[in-house]
Design brief:
Layout lengths: L1 E10 L2 E12 L4 E5 L4 H4 L1 H10 L9 E7 L11 H11 L7 H5 E3 L2 E2 L5 E2 L4 H10 L4 E5 L3 H4 L6 E5 L2 H8 L31 H13 L3 E4 L6 H7 L9 H14 L13 E2 L7 H5 E2 L4 E2 L1 H4 L4 E4 L7 H6 L1 H6 L1 E5 L4 E5 L3 E6 L17 H8 L4 H5 L3 E4 L5 H4 L8 H18 L13 H7 L4 H14 L3 H17 L7 H9 L3 H5 L3
Parallel strand pairs: 3-4, 5-8, 8-9, 10-17, 10-18, 11-14, 14-17
Antiparallel strand pairs: 1-2, 2-4, 6-7, 12-13, 15-16
Helix pairs in contact: 2-3, 8-18, 20-22, 21-22
Length: 508
Amino acid sequence: MLAILKSCTLSGYEGVLTLVEVDVTRGFPHFDIVGLADTAVKESRERVRAALANNGYKLPSDRITINLAPAAIQKHGPVLDLPIAIGILAASGQIAATARVLDTLMSGELSLEGKIRPVKGVLSMAITAKKNKVAALAVPRENAAEAAAIQDLEVIPVGSLKELVAWCQGQREIKAAVPYRAEESGLGFQGDLARVKGQQAAKRSLEVAAAGGHNLLMMGPPGSGKTLLANCLPSIMPPLDSDQSLAASQIYSVAGLLTRGRLITVPPFRNPHHSASLAGIVGGGSVPRPGEISLAHHGVLFLDEFPEFSRDVLEALRQPLEDRIVTVARAQATCTYPANFTLIASMNPCPCGHFGSDLECNCTPPQIQRYLGRISGPLLDRMDLHVEVPRVKLDQLQEHGGGESSASLREKVINARDIQQKRFAHSKIKLNSQMRPADVRKHCNLDDASQNLLKSVFDRLHLSARAYDRVLKIARTIADLEGSEHIKTAQLAEALQYRSLDRKYWNS
């Protein structure tokens, strides 16, 4: 007898509708799974065998063949345990092949006692179920809240094999899951910029970076506050809209990082250690999974001690910074992950950290050049804002009261982003940093005085074509922060001063 059930597997971060075809026929006892199943999928034979026996069901002593279609796509993980078990029961006649059995997309890992354990990527599975107009989705109880975030989809939370069988047979009803309320939590946990003493120039650069989604490089001696400033950046960024929240949460779901099914509602902040591998930052592995740059999607990737990261990792950032996606190619599959993030990097000016400061530097010129040379010119060119973060003086540390609060700056950033939303309402662009050359020419017009200023500085700073466009994008963001329809000379001058750090240190 044949039973065909619906399930879902993951390819990259997207779900693929998978048909679990279970055939039970007379013959020599055999249990075979075909359809490019990996080790974890094939091991489901033993989990299903024990789960059925421990719940009063029988594994037929016949020939059992299970085909996972489409057979050309690799199947990973234990997500197919549940449909395989229900399919065997239906194909062997132990339960009726009702509409609930055949029309419900099922996913879950079985324990040997028949409990259903949570799995990764349920949010992607729910999106796939809705796209394919599946009637209902049965998932582990721990995953139900994230799946319920997809509207107009009935999500059935189940905790055991017996519970699912009873629901499939109409012997009991299970209340459909509801999503957690979107909670704007974590908007201030990173810290308040009002508590940061001094560093007004660095705070201003953070404001510009948050408003336009610009990449920022901070350079200064140890203890000047670079890490503290970076950790405050999410506190001045607006919460994610519904589409951004769903996109970021989908990546976290695939990585198994969603907390109790709560969707990501604030910009993610990722701070990997400089010893992180290329696969850890970019993504990959034998079973491809998203890396830090994808986990920072619609958020911030902070790379502290920038030159200490391996050269391969740093150079691998160049393409995602331009294309805002990353493609991981493997022999069996090619996966594309979104990577629309703001890069914040911090570094010392030399190995000892005191070059250019009021403290004595013990490094030789070759040592300094080797240290700075770890950051290539093309990568440096992709950093929109360059800012020096000097040591804080004693009188600044002893000041009572701080500067402008994160809440106040956040309102300015939101207003600037609202201007950009209206400007790009009829395109896929959301922020000034995403403008293409044609958009720059359209939205970054300069008056004669500004043109003359740019001409006088262009050759002196040896700006590349990419840097030229980025200066105009930054000027456009500064104008938006000040509510100016046109770019003024003072706003262009401020944008230009953010491009002088590389000329000071790298071309010295």
